[in-house]
């Protein structure tokens, strides 16, 4: 399923929860794990002087320094690497995180990119101010799905058996469904098909009567059957639900209810032209709030 | 006598908890992993469970998930004892979460509050 996973890490505590997911996934799926660390941003232009995010010092970067940082990353993950279960390579680089991550992704062509959440300490100001935009930019341009572990609660807790697929019935969601189904089949997981009916009045410009809401819920069930259930052939290990509410809240609640180990969604699926747009407010909020890793499928 | 089930793969922690709890007037039973834990829980119907998170094979949260599906066991209070970071969030219905190394007095007082 996944042969190559790119894990973009700060090699600090802030990435620990994502690391737990990355190492466990790579181990279970027998995938190659590429640990990629952007060690700092040049102080100006193409300067060799770089502000190292780990040591918090300005350093002059050369090949020797980079290999020293790679050794540091290796040491940081020595526990995970000790048993030799995960086939792993390490690369450090200099530049703006999103650009370097995308460059690395183009180079090694991974099947999945794993990103952590915002860094915890206030001292990590270089990342703190840009992690949101790093995630946005990587998600927007990534050549493959990205998996985000934003909260420590969203880390790996011992297995993968329930996958929630959130849909808004767009074309992008169809792609995300293919991806979710593929994971569910290869890992023998239960797949929960979910649609949240948006009843927030600001969005609809009016409030709906309960009859209207329930009519729309029935329609959504029919759509789920038509679009997705029909493509699962003889598969029995699934459930489907439609809840009304504010979409991201409902998806987070539903995932908690179903003990989801993973949420799969298409990002910004209402707007297919992705130039200049963000990843979509629902997707963003689900990533921020979910209690499990979230995979955003881009194309 | 109230009975407490200890689920932990580390024999040192198990032994420590058994002697601590028995010295304080509780009966104990132990399990080393999730599967064993569910079996022992069904047989013994403990009044409280202490649960480690990271264990070989399935992890603690999956133990809780299966426990929650058993009508007779679903309301058994669970105390998470783990060295894993972010462990407060692993089982939202746990009555308490303690990080290793934990304070014995704190554990005993949580048990006292939650065992009925």
Written description of the protein model:
The complex is a heterodimer of chains A (299) and B (116). With 299 residues, chain A is α/β, with parallel strands linked by helices. Chain A folds into 2 domains: 151 residues, 3-Layer(aba) Sandwich (Rossmann fold); 136 residues, HUPs (Rossmann fold). Helices cover 40% and strands 24% of the residues of chain A. Chain A has 11 helices and 12 strands. In chain A, strands 1, 2, 3, 4, 5, 6, 7, 8, 9, 10, 11 and 12 form a 12-stranded mixed beta sheet that branches. Chain B has 4 helices and 5 strands; from the N terminus they run βαβαβαββα. Chain B has one domain: Rossmann fold, CATH 3.40.50. The longest helix of chain B is centred in the N-terminal third of the chain and has 13 residues. Chain B is globular and about 30 Å long. The mean pLDDT of chain B is 92. Chain B has a 5-stranded parallel beta sheet, with helices on both faces. Chain B is an alpha/beta fold and 116 residues long. Chains A and B meet through loops of A and helix 3 of B.
């Amino acid at each position: 399923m996944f042969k190559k996973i790119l894990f973009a890490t700060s090699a600090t505590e802030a990435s620990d929860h994502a690391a737990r997911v990355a190492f466990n996934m790579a181990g279970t799926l027998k995938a190659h794990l590429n640990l990629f660390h952007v060690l700092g941003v040049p102080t100006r232009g193409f300067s060799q002087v770089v502000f190292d995010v780990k040591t918090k010092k300005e350093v002059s970067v050369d090949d020797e320094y980079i290999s020293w940082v790679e050794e540091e990353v290796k040491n940081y993950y020595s526990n995970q690497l000790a048993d030799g279960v995960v086939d792993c390579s390490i690369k450090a680089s200099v530049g703006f995180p999103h650009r370097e991550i995308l460059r690395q992704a183009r180079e090694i062509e991974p099947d999945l990119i794993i990103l952590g959440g915002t860094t915890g300490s206030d001292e990590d100001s270089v990342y703190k101010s840009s992690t949101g935009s790093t995630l946005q930019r990587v998600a927007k341009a990534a050549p493959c799905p990205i998996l985000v572990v934003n909260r420590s609660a969203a880390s790996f807790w011992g297995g993968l058996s329930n996958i929630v697929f959130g849909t808004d019935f767009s074309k992008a969601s169809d792609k995300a469904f293919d991806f979710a189904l593929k994971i569910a089949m290869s890992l023998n997981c239960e797949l929960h098909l979910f649609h949240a009916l948006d009843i927030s009045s600001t969005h609809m410009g009016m409030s709906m009567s309960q009859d209207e809401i329930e009519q729309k819920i029935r329609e959504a069930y029919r759509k789920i059957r038509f679009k997705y259930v029909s493509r699962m052939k003889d598969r029995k290990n699934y459930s489907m639900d439609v809840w009304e509410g504010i979409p991201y809240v409902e998806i987070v609640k539903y995932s908690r209810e179903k003990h989801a180990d993973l949420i799969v969604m298409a990002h910004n699926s209402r707007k297919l032209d992705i130039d200049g747009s963000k990843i979509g407010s629902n997707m963003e909020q689900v990533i921020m709030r979910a209690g499990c890793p979230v995979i955003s499928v881009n194309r | 006598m109230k009975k407490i089930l200890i689920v932990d793969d580390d024999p040192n922690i198990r032994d420590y908890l058994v002697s601590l709890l028995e010295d304080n007037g509780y009966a104990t039973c132990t399990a080393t992993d999730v599967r064993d834990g569910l079996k022992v829980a069904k047989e013994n119907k403990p009044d409280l469970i202490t649960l480690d998170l990271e264990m070989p094979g399935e992890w603690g949260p999956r133990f809780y998930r299966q426990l929650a599906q058993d009508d007779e066991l679903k309301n058994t209070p669970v105390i998470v004892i783990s060295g894993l970071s972010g462990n407060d969030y692993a089982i939202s219905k746990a009555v308490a979460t303690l990080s290793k190394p934990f304070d014995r007095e704190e554990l005993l007082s949580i048990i006292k509050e939650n065992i009925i």
